[in-house]
Design brief:
The chain is built from seven helices and 15 strands. The protein is α+β, with helices and mostly antiparallel strands. Strand 10 and strand 11 form a beta hairpin. Helix 1 packs parallel to helix 2, helix 3 packs across helix 4 and helix 5 runs parallel beside helix 6.
């Protein structure tokens, strides 16, 4: 076997390991964009991927050694020799990746999820403006974020076909397809929600109270979800936890036990000082209207809360499975610590 052929075979085994490393880093939020490139900077090596040219590059931190591919083709002339020791180190990396929950690539020919067309049509029904990736393109696009990954959904005006891609250029994984199955469920739940009427006059106290109740109950759930599963920013000046949601914000002051919602600088609703009571919070009985709430405001909070309820079910199910899979001794230790 020639040295060139051996190098090519080693590179062919290394590339999937590097792609899995890149995918894991992406799932951990460690991949950043610089111009047209997406890169992950590890302790010893940097991985760079350009979705426009389909070039993949690995370079060590001092720049003395690199491996390069273009459209799956190994570029031997622009790459350094892969030594026996380096080849063994990559195999050890692959074995370590086997112990991690690395997103697995989906089949090469993936049918576009039905949720793609439904979400595109949903955005269009909301009057959201599309954009094109190139002036001459026939595809109208929306940029959406699902589970912290940015996607491009598009419809070809010439054929009517819909398409789904990750903005970072990484091929769709089974995790992506699972996320978009959740999008389908989310849209189903939105289709079944009851219509909400706007309060036509300030004197319409009953309708206004319903809007306040809907808004605050969803805001409270969103706050609780973030507290349990994510992170909430604490503002020392206001002595409050604050969540930003597009043009809205939810704030909670633990000292006074008050919750309030704002659109921009306008406070829409808040709760009076009180204490929550287990599964029966008294939030709404102490609510007070502050700003002018519309059905659009309420719908936005319904949409966010509905999505997070789906995520909550998934996370609790995963947590339950992990606890069930613990060996008996570890499970007892885990329960004791909890």
């Amino acid at each position: 076997m020639s040295d060139l052929q051996e190098q090519g075979e080693r590179a062919a085994q290394i590339r999937p390991i590097l792609e899995r490393t890149f995918a894991l880093a992406q799932s951990w939020g460690m991949v950043e964009q610089l111009g047209d490139d997406w890169y992950y900077q590890g302790k010893e090596h940097t991985l760079i991927y350009n979705p426009q040219s389909d070039q993949f590059l690995m370079v060590n931190q001092d720049g003395s050694w690199q491996l390069s591919w273009h459209e799956q083709l190994f570029l031997a002339k622009s790459s350094q020799e892969i030594t026996d020791q380096q080849f063994e180190e990559f195999h050890e990396l692959g074995q370590w990746l086997d112990t991690q929950e690395v997103p697995q690539p989906a089949a090469s020919e993936v049918e576009v999820p039905g949720s793609t067309a439904r979400l595109f049509q949903w955005y269009a029904s909301q009057g959201a403006a599309t954009f094109k990736l190139a002036v001459e393109s026939t595809k109208d696009c929306y940029r959406v974020q699902v589970d912290n990954i940015v996607y491009l959904i598009s419809q070809d005006a010439a054929t009517g076909d819909y398409d789904l891609k990750r903005e970072d250029g990484i091929a769709l994984t089974t995790a992506d397809l699972n996320a978009w199955a959740s999008v389908y469920l989310w849209l189903d739940k939105l289709d079944k929600r009851s219509p909400i009427s706007d309060s036509s006059e300030a004197a319409d106290q009953e309708t206004q109270k319903q809007l306040v109740d809907h808004l605050l109950s969803n805001a409270e759930f969103i706050l609780a979800f973030r507290h349990d599963f994510e992170a909430i920013e604490y503002d020392q000046a206001q002595q409050s936890y604050i969540i930003g949601l597009d043009d809205y914000s939810i704030s909670y002051n633990p000292i006074e036990d008050t919750l309030w919602v704002q659109r921009g600088m306008e406070r829409l609703a808040s709760t009076s000082r009180q204490h929550f009571n287990g599964d029966s919070p008294q939030t709404l009985t102490g609510s007070q209207h502050v700003g002018s709430i519309t059905s659009t405001d309420v719908y936005h909070f319904q949409e966010w809360a509905t999505w997070l309820r789906l995520k909550q079910e998934e996370l609790l199910q995963q947590q339950s499975i992990k606890e069930f899979d613990l060996p008996e001794k570890n499970r007892l230790d885990h329960d004791f610590e909890r």
